[in-house]
Design a protein that fits this description.
The complex is a heterodimer of chains A (42) and B (512). With 42 residues, chain A is an alpha+beta fold. Helices cover 24% and strands 36% of the residues of chain A. Chain A contains 1 helix and 2 strands. In chain A, strands 1-2 form a two-stranded parallel sheet. In chain A, helix 1 (19-28) links the parallel strand 1 (7-13) and strand 2 (32-39). Helices cover 40% and strands 16% of the residues of chain B. Chain B is built from 20 helices and 14 strands. Chain B has a 6-stranded mixed beta sheet with strand order 2-1-9-8-6-7, sandwiched between helices. The longest helix of chain B has 27 residues, at 485-511. Chain B is globular and about 65 Å long. The chains are: A alpha+beta (42), B alpha/beta (512). The interface between A and B is medium-sized, with 14 and 25 residues.
């Protein structure tokens, strides 16, 4: 999926892939991060 | 440098179905946002009774009656395969019914904030008198109780939080101040639960460990609560308050915080205090959290699973001077997630697992067991959080493959051999590495394994002060029995001083 130029909201998982790690990937793909958070489900 | 060893561990669960409704945040927030929610009727219909909670295999594992290997051999779903004739008392601790625990809260209540209804107070005294870790003299301090009307009046005036048992109001916890939000009845309730549950774990530790309590010099409390008033939120100190209730007359203490990672931070601090010679014996402990009770109740009910988050968890570990037998905590291989480490799972695992191993020339496969976050997967999977321990083991194994410590096709074998099924309740800090310390001590002493890594991870971002994650680890390993030059020398010095004192005494007597 091409996300270049898209606006992205990120919901990270503390025990999966946390928000900041997803942010790095999304930035590399040329998307705009409009919201990013990491939640803890345990 | 003297060695620090793990001398013992105590664990307890408190059966707290009623507190899911009154103090679990899933239910309390639902009450605010959707007061007519079906959840209030559904939760009581979908909880395990005390007997079912005692028989539930992960809970039997938590108190040491079955070990992690035995748990893994029990068919899932575990909630349909309870252990017959299971005991509430175990090798490492106990599962306490709520009525007894409310009595323990009253006994932990230095400022007369806990009010029990008269009849309930009598029943609690009768029940706690039978408990091996509470004396009749102490139980009498519960008092005669109060009229229910008085308690109800305080609840109606919003000056108290309810204590319920089997769905009925049996008492309350009063506010400790008229205006101070940090001393309101809700905070006092949570803090008294943390204190009293910590006391239960401490007493179990002391009962099951060969230690003179007068030789315990320090307590580190590692829960996720904060006690203090409006001028010093979180000023402390649970540690000393719990130590007082455990009879640790010669101890002081302090609270260490770090979300779920705090217990392992506590173990690191305790190891440092003992191995530096500052204190001989240090207890690391934590009480449990009412807020997380029933946290995933909505998903559990939706999936036809009992509301398994019905227990308050608590633990206590004793770190002491080298006894030549107990497992040693290594001081040269402490893992830490640094501020600069990064947030990706690979970066986190590298910082916590492989960097400390590299620093002492060990491979991933040199660690027999990794105790990661040992959440019971039957709680987390229906809630969409997956099997947390297994995910951690896969990441460790994948790093091992990348480093050449193991072959790619050995990945799942590694997970099975070096990992474990989770058994701990989702009480935040409680599952974080420490549930295995008691088993690790036993397995290392018995020669079944040589080395275990205990890992704690914490979600610091929940406090909204930083986006950083946190994690630390320690390695427990077999005691060679060789002692250390410093500790031998110190013992020699003690003997010399004792001999000199005896001679002085003799000379004084002869002069008379």
């Amino acid at each position: 999926m091409n996300i270049e130029g898209k606006k992205i909201a990120i919901l990270g998982d503390r025990d999966g892939i946390p928000g900041p790690a997803i942010e790095e990937c999304v930035k590399t793909a040329g998307a705009e991060i409009v919201f990013s958070t990491t939640e803890c489900f345990v | 440098m003297p060695k620090a060893v793990v001398k013992g561990a105590g664990y307890a669960l408190i059966h707290a179905n009623d507190m899911i409704l009154t103090h679990g945040t899933t239910l309390t927030t639902e009450r605010m946002s959707n007061p007519d929610s079906d959840l209030f009727a559904d939760v009581p219909k979908n909880v395990q009774s005390f007997e079912e909670t005692v028989a539930y295999p992960p809970n039997q594992c938590y108190i040491g009656n079955i070990n992690p290997d035995e748990l893994a051999n029990i068919s899932s779903p575990w909630y349909e395969n309870g252990i017959e004739n299971a005991s509430r008392f175990g090798k490492f601790g106990e599962i306490m019914p709520l009525n007894e625990f409310i009595g323990a809260m009253r006994l932990s209540d230095t400022f007369d904030l806990v009010m029990l209804e008269k009849d309930f107070a009598e029943k609690v005294k009768a029940a706690l008198t039978e408990h091996p870790l509470f004396s009749a003299e102490e139980v009498a301090k519960i008092g005669n109780g109060y009229d229910l009307a008085l308690i109800q009046g305080l609840l109606d005036a919003h000056k108290a939080d309810p204590l319920t048992f089997d769905g009925k109001i049996v008492g309350c916890v009063k506010q400790a101040h008229d205006f101070d939000v940090n001393l309101n009845s809700h905070v006092m309730f949570e803090n008294l639960v943390a204190k009293a549950s910590g006391v239960v774990a401490l007493r179990n530790l002391l009962a099951k460990t060969d230690i003179d309590i007068n030789e315990i010099e320090y307590v580190i409390e590692t829960s996720e609560e904060a006690c203090g008033d409006m001028n010093q939120r979180g000023g402390g100190n649970f540690a000393k308050a719990i130590g007082e209730m455990g009879g640790l007359a010669n101890a002081t203490g302090s609270d260490t915080r770090g979300f779920c990672a705090a217990p392992v931070h506590g173990l690191i601090n305790a190891t440092a205090l003992v191995s530096s010679g500052i204190f001989k014996n240090v207890v690391v402990l934590a009480g449990g959290a009412t807020a997380k009770l029933g946290m995933n109740a909505r998903d559990h009910i939706k999936k036809g699973v009992p509301v398994l988050e019905n227990c308050i968890g608590t633990f206590a570990v004793l770190i002491g001077e080298d006894d030549g037998v107990s497992p040693v905590v290594r001081t040269d291989a402490v893992g830490r997630h640094k501020i600069s480490s990064g947030a990706s799972p690979q970066a986190v695992t590298t910082a916590i697992v492989t960097e400390p191993l590299d620093s002492v020339g060990l491979k991933i496969t040199d660690v027999d067991k990794f105790s990661v976050e040992m959440q019971n997967p039957e709680i987390t999977k229906p809630a969409g959080a997956g099997d947390v321990p297994t995910a951690n083991y896969k990441m460790i194994a994948a790093l091992g493959v990348k480093r050449g410590d193991l072959d790619r096709k050995e990945l799942m074998n590694f997970v099975k051999k070096h990992g474990m099924q989770g058994w701990a309740p989702t009480q935040g800090h409680i599952p974080s590495g420490v549930p295995y310390v008691g088993f690790a001590r036993e397995a290392i002493v018995n020669g079944e394994i040589n080395r275990a890594m205990i890992i704690g991870k914490g979600s610091l971002f929940l406090g909204r002060m930083t986006n950083l994650f946190d994690g630390v680890s320690i390695i427990m390993e077999k005691n060679t029995g060789e002692g250390s030059a410093d500790s031998v020398a110190r013992e020699d010095i003690r003997q010399m001083i004792a001999e000199a004192m005896r001679k002085l005494g003799d000379s004084l007597v002869s002069q008379e």
